[in-house]
């Protein structure tokens, strides 16, 4: 009976956190439900970095009903003074009876200290209710807070035969409309969206979030070792979102100045000839970009895969076959000799979206 109760309220807390994905920056998404005598008396979610944590909103709503209540929270309550005071202190001063948590906070400033504080004050703590769902929900936060590197999701959209365009270069559209809506939701849920300069030259993309609901457009990042990006592209000129170019010392200073005059930020990541991708990722991490959606093309996808900088792969596949001998696929790199050396996907999830298929998983390198 208790187990059913715990999962019932925790899944509501997780639902709230899920809907807030994309709007908390490098912070986790967190939901909280306060329950007293069989009734919900407070609900809350963390909605924006620098503003109240989920527990604070839910406890404010509960008011005097918080005393003796059970508090469901999707992440271990914090124990540190960050941009806001520690939630564990607040739970203690409200005299709640029991705290049920989905997963531990991997932030080294918290990591278990939240539980210790609560237990030391006689509050009953239970951990691990719907833990897998909670960890999956905050996979970007977990990677960033433990490594300082952004979580990178590589998204591809291809035909059944693995092509990303026809032999003449036509690519509109491979995926169906529903899958494209999913892709825009993915953009909303990442802080950066990254492409190679070849993709900019070929497609002149806008790389903004265009959803049927309002959405946030991530910062647009172009990997361009020689600053070949044409000035006359949407990314340079439209001002619809910030644009950042990752380049090398080989790029001309004059070209950099022209780009900067359009408000584009240029960052040099090493001597060249290619952009050092690990350096690039740690510089983006330092700029508090904690998650990136990589949208190609094949060369950058291949290089990021080879550098082991991809955390999740998400592949949208349309039931079409276009053939062609030289027609590009989603990943261009040297390739392996033996099947044993293949990069594999772990924790595979498969979903159909109308007549399209979405396959996602975590890459593992041999
Ligand atoms: C919670 N509840 O709703 C959130 C938590 O800078 P601050 O003060 O917002 O602190 C951010 C850190 O607090 C973040 O890295 C994570 O460890 C924790 N987030 N904790 O108890 C919440 N958002
Ligand atoms: Zn907190």
From TrEMBL:
Keywords: Hydrolase, Metal-binding, Multifunctional enzyme, NADP, Oxidoreductase, Riboflavin biosynthesis, Zinc. It holds the Pfam family dCMP_cyt_deam_1. Binds 1 zinc ion. Its cofactor is Zn(2+). Residues 4-126 form the CMP/dCMP-type deaminase domain. The keyword Cytoplasm does not apply. SUPFAM superfamilies: Cytidine deaminase-like (SSF53927), Dihydrofolate reductase-like (SSF53597). Its EC number is 3.5.4.26, 1.1.1.193. InterPro entries: APOBEC/CMP_deaminase_Zn-bd, CMP_dCMP_dom, Cytidine_deaminase-like, DHFR-like_dom_sf, Eubact_RibD, RibD_C, RibDG_C, Riboflavin_Biosynth_HTPR. GO terms for molecular function: 5-amino-6-(5-phosphoribosylamino)uracil reductase activity; diaminohydroxyphosphoribosylaminopyrimidine deaminase activity. CDD domains: Riboflavin_deaminase-reductase. It catalyses: 5-amino-6-(5-phospho-D-ribitylamino)uracil + NADP(+) = 5-amino-6-(5-phospho-D-ribosylamino)uracil + NADPH + H(+); 2,5-diamino-6-hydroxy-4-(5-phosphoribosylamino)-pyrimidine + H2O + H(+) = 5-amino-6-(5-phospho-D-ribosylamino)uracil + NH4(+). It comes from the Bacteria. Converts 2,5-diamino-6-(ribosylamino)-4(3h)-pyrimidinone 5'-phosphate into 5-amino-6-(ribosylamino)-2,4(1h,3h)-pyrimidinedione 5'-phosphate. In the N-terminal section; belongs to the cytidine and deoxycytidylate deaminase family. This is Riboflavin biosynthesis protein RibD.
């Amino acid at each position: 009976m208790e187990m059913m109760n715990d999962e019932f309220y925790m899944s509501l807390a997780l639902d709230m956190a899920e809907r807030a994905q994309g709007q908390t920056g490098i912070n986790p998404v967190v939901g909280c439900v306060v329950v007293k005598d069989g009734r919900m008396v407070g609900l809350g979610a963390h909605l924006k970095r620098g503003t109240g944590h989920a527990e604070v909103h839910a406890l404010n709503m509960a008011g005097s009903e918080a005393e003796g209540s059970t508090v469901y929270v999707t992440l271990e309550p914090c124990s540190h003074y960050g941009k806001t005071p520690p939630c564990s202190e607040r739970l203690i001063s409200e005299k709640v009876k029991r705290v049920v948590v989905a997963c531990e906070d991997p932030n080294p400033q918290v990591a278990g200290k939240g539980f210790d504080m609560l237990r030391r004050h006689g509050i009953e703590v239970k951990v691990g209710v719907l833990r897998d769902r909670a960890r999956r929900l905050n996979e970007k936060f977990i990677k960033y807070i433990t490594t300082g590197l952004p979580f990178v999701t590589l998204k591809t959209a291809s035909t059944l035969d693995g092509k990303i365009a026809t032999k003449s270069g036509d690519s509109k559209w491979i995926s169906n409309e529903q899958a494209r809506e999913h892709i825009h939701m993915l953009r909303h849920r990442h802080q950066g969206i990254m492409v190679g300069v070849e993709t900019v030259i070929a497609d002149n993309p806008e790389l903004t979030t265009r959803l049927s609901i309002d959405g946030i457009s991530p910062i647009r990042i172009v990997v361009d070792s020689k600053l070949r990006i044409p000035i006359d592209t949407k990314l340079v000129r439209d001002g619809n979102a910030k644009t950042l170019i990752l380049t090398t010392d080989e790029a001309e200073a004059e070209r950099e100045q022209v780009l900067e005059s359009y408000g584009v930020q240029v960052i040099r990541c090493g001597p060249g000839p290619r952009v050092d991708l690990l350096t690039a990722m740690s510089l983006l991490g330092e700029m508090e970009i904690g998650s990136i959606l990589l949208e190609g093309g094949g060369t950058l996808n291949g290089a990021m895969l080879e550098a082991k900088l991809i955390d999740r792969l998400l592949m949208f596949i349309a039931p079409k076959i276009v053939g062609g001998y030289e027609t590009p696929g989603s990943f261009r790199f040297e390739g392996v000799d033996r099947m044993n050396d293949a990069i594999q996907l772990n924790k595979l999830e498969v979903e159909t979206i109308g007549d399209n298929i979405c396959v996602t998983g975590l890459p593992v390198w041999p």
